[in-house]
Amino acid sequence: MDKKISKNENREKLTVLIDKDVKKDMKKEIVDLDCSMGEFIEKLFDIYKSRK
């Protein structure tokens, strides 16, 4: 079986959307929505983690 992502990890990924610096990046990336929403959130999460 594939490892399931915990609810807390999903919540942490969604908090990325609140981060002000990431919102600036989000505005730049929002025009490129060829990826799925999951991939979009993953990308934002990676940006968020790289700034910590």
From TrEMBL:
It comes from the Bacteria. This is Uncharacterized protein. The lineage of its organism: Bacteria, Bacillati, Bacillota, Clostridia, Eubacteriales.
